[in-house]
Structure formats: C-alpha cells, structure tokens
Amino acid sequence: MKNYNISCVSRIALPDSVLVALQEVLECSGTVLKKTEHQTTQGLRALDIFLSLSSSEEADLKRQLLELAHRWETDIALIPCDQKRENVRLIVFDMDSTLIRQEVINELARAHGVDGAVVEITERAMNGELNFDEALKERVALLQGLPQSALEAVMARLELSSGVSKLIREVQKRGLRTAIVSGGFHFFAENFRRQLGMDYVFANDLEIKDGLLTGRVQGRVINAAAKAEILEDLARREGLSLDQVMAIGDGANDLPMLAKAGLGIAYHAKEKVRREARHQVSFGDMTTLLYYLGIPGDHRDEIP
C-alpha cells in the first residue's frame, strides 16, 4: 500500500453531492482512509483526504476522480505523499495563457495586422499539432517590420491570470523561489518577473534592428526540450531534487517540463496536456495551487 493525498478544491463551497460522490468512489476503490482535513475556514472549499492505496489501483482511482472533477467542475489532484508537497521550494511558470491570460505573439500579430494567420498557427502549436520551432519561426517572420514601440503598447494590455499575485506572495513568504520559463518573449517575461519580484526568467529574444522587428529570434530557442533542461538546471542551481519543484503550464511544449517536476500542473490546459499531465487545475484560479501545496487559508481575496 502507498500513501496518497487527495486535494479537492472548489470555487464555491463544496456541495454535499460532491462529497457523497467522492465517498462512493473511495469506498469502491479499495482505499484505506486515514484522515480528512479542511483547508479553509470560510465555508468548505478545500479538502485534503489522506489515504492508502495499492499502486495497481492508482490509475483507476485517478480516472474516476477526474471524471468526478469534470462532472462537478471541481479541481481534484491525487498526489503521492512521498512527493512531500510541503517540501516544494521552486515553482516554474510558463508565461502565455498560464502566468498571464493572453498569448503574447497573438497580441503582437494583432498590432501588426497579421493576427488571422498567427492565431491559427499558435493554436495548432499549443495543441501539439505542429513542431514548435518551425511554428515559432513562421509566426515571428510575420512580425517583420513591427515597430519596437509596439512591444510597450502590447505590454500595457497584458493581464496576469487570476490569483497569480496572491499565489506568488504566499509562496515567497515561505521562502520559495519562482521562475518564468517561456517559449514566448523575454521583453514581456522580464517585465512580469520585475513586477512580481520573481527570481529567474528564461524566454526567447526577438531580434530588433533600427527600431523594427526583423522577423527573427536571436540566440537559443526556448522550446519544449529547453524548458525541461532549464528546470533541471534551476533545481541543481538551487540545490534541490526534482521532487521539490512544481511546474505549471498549458501547452504541448510544456509537457516535458511538467513531467520532470515533482508536481507538474496542467493549468486550464489544452486537451492533450490535460490528458498527459499528472495533475491539473481546470476550474479554479492560481490560488488552487496553494491548496495543492498544503497551504491552508481563505486565499480567494483577489477574486471579484
């Protein structure tokens, strides 16, 4: 038997119907329940269930929990206790459609009047239908001639994902390190790193000459393989094991990074990513991850 924690997080108070359905699933799965802990004080929104389960039953229980999660629009993660989620010391964020709401390259394309072509390529690339490097090259080429001043204008329109500021403040209070590792662009990632007081940033550099984008990326391309390598390098730099790293992303190019991390989270992700990632947040905001980390409290004070 192996020890697990089920972290169950709802945007609203968990209705009795969800709790009954969850109890039925667990009773039929051969689990040995150990204890249950509430993580919130203002209504039952987050619940931890500690249990033992044979390794052979893990996949089936995870499948049933995901079905339950989608039926009730509640985020549920089955986390092996040997991952020691309370020992996570580094959180690595993808940027586009994860740390922030938008896909920056789509916003740049809109400013340049080529958004129709770029948005389609972006969607296919994030779904894993296109080679990321080729898709990036093709999209950036369409930005040739865009004035550098447009980057500032686009930056002013970008919005953080809901709950990001709260999440980062809370983990920084506890001494966790934070990083942006993005297949997007350094200008924007660095701005958000400074705004949020994060520790590291890695992203692609747009080549600019005479105040205009050349339509090329300079230096190393931050693709799926590079993201995973950077995560490993950061863990070594911080003196951490991979089990002490949480990674969060939404696109197919995030999957190797999510697989490397002890806690890899598909955040409001594309279908392929939800299917392949070990854990996911599909309904709540970024503060859901505080509960996945075992940090109790009423964390949704930023939500309108």
Describe the structure.
This protein is an alpha/beta fold and 304 residues long. The chain has 2 domains: 1-83, ACT domain (Alpha-Beta Plaits); 87-304, Rossmann fold. Helix content is 41%, strand content 24%. The chain has helices at residues 16-27, 58-72, 95-99, 104-112, 115-126, 132-141, 149-157, 164-173, 186-196, 224-237, 255-260, 271-276, 288-292; strands spanning 2-9, 32-38, 46-53, 75-80, 90-93, 177-185, 200-209, 212-218, 245-249, 263-267, 279-281. It has a 7-stranded mixed sheet, sandwiched between helices. Strands 2-3-1-4 form a 4-stranded antiparallel sheet. Helix 12 (271-276) links the parallel strand 10 (263-267) and strand 11. The chain is elongated. The N and C termini lie far apart (43 Å).
**Separation of termini?**
43 Å
Low-confidence stretches: none
Inertia-based shape: elongated
Number of strands: 11
How is the CATH topology of the largest domain named?
A: Rossmann fold
Helix content range: 40-55%
Order of helices and strands: EHEEHEEHHHHHHEHEEHEHEHEH
As a whole number of angstroms, the C-alpha radius of gyration is 20 Å
Class derived from helix and strand content: alpha/beta
The amount of beta strand, in percent, is 15-25%
How many helices does DSSP assign?
A: 13
The main pleated sheet reads as: 7 strands, mixed
The order of strands across the largest sheet is 8-7-6-5-9-10-11
Please state the second-level CATH architecture of the largest domain. 3-Layer(aba) Sandwich
* Tally of separate domains: 2
